[in-house]
Amino acid sequence: MATVGRINKQDVFTCPICLETLKSPKSLPCLHTFCETCIGEFILSTEKRLEKQMSDYPCPVCRTVVTPTNPKDEASQWAASLPHNFTISSLMDNSKSVKQECHLCQRRDKISEATQWCRDCDEALCEECLQLHGFMKLFSDHTVVQIDEMNSVSIVEDPDLSMISDSCPVHSSKVLEAFCYEHQELCCVLCLTLQHRKCENIQAIEEMLKLHKHRIKSLESELSEIKETIEYKIEETRSEKEKKDNTFAGIEDNARQFILSLKAKLESLLVLFLKEMNLTHNEQSFEFESKIKTYEKLLTHIETMQCVTKTVQEHGSLNQMFIHFEKSKSKAKSIVKEASQVLNTNLILEMKLNLCDTLTEVESVDSLGKMDFTSTTFIDIDEFTRDFFQHYTRENIRIF
């Protein structure tokens, strides 16, 4: 049956883990929603893979770190404590009541509710279009059922035998009576007359049933075996998917751990570099402070000598003037010589940072790395066919 309404259930109502309709939907803080059982199994598998007790876990879709409401609880209880997504539950309930639109009206850009479903046309019909459908001779023998009844009936538990029609698809007024082995086709009398006159290997259905009755009876057991094979393949595929999911998660964890360790290494290099730089900085600062103090001390001596010289000039004798002059020259030379010993030290002229060549190369890197994939064909067609039809001989296949 066509999809009911216009709601995209695949996107809204599908669990990203099991890819089936959500059951007891639980939401993470990042707003991604999962089945309670699925997110619970994901948490436990993540803890098992890490081989240690977790205090948080990543979202299976966006990898956002989720901290449980009660981190001290067992990891098996974290899923149950997640908030229930009542919005999704409500939408899922409402979607069940969305009405099916008539397909014929849609082609005419009209909207009307369909009440009937034609199994042969595989289309929904409103009451008006149902009448038009019935008037046409080509569709007169089509099987039409109520949509409500169709929705409420389980095909597996109560199959509709009207789906298996014995009417000829070419000549609707005739019944299928024979099977042509050369063309592998079911035929009515008109088909045999018009299209299979030259065919030699034709057998009546009644005769085939008598000859192959035991094979027809074995169909149920054969289908059961095929069903078991399909169920095994589903479990096998799910297991393989889980392995791949865990592998991708492990690769992501390794990449994150590498970046974290790289950051830690760079931080330690930065601390060591700044420590060495600050030692040099402090030494240079001390040298500059010493020079400044020496200049200030020298300036004080000179200013004192100026003051004394002025006083002697104004109030002293010539004798005192000469003595002061000689002593001042000698004292000035001594002070300048003493200061020059302090001032005559090496200072850094220019400074610049020369990064390690390896770090410079890292700065130019445009990718963390590349994924190496070893691919294989998911299924071998011949082997796949043998798995499902290993008990059928060619003759078995032909009669069905």
From TrEMBL:
SMART domains in the cross-refs: BBOX, RING
Coiled-coil spans in chain: 202-236
Pfam family, one: zf-RING_UBOX
Gene Ontology molecular-function annotations: zinc ion binding
Family matches, as SUPFAM superfamilies: B-box zinc-binding domain, RING/U-box
Keywords, alphabetical: Coiled coil, Metal-binding, Zinc, Zinc-finger
Sequence ranges assigned to domain B box-type in this UniProt record: 100-147
Residue ranges constituting the RING-type domain according to the UniProt record: 15-63
Domain of life where this protein originates: Eukaryota
Gene3D superfamilies: Classic Zinc Finger (3.30.160.60), Zinc/RING finger domain, C3HC4 (zinc finger) (3.30.40.10)
CDD domains given in the database record: Bbox1
UniProt cross-references to InterPro entries, sorted A to Z: TRIM45/56/19-like, Znf-RING_euk, Znf_B-box, Znf_RING, Znf_RING/FYVE/PHD, Znf_RING_CS
Record keyword Zinc present: yes
Keyword Zinc-finger belongs to the record: yes
PANTHER family per record: BONUS, ISOFORM C-RELATED, MEIOTIC P26, ISOFORM F
Record protein name field: Tripartite motif-containing protein 2/3
Native source organism of the sequence: Mytilus galloprovincialis
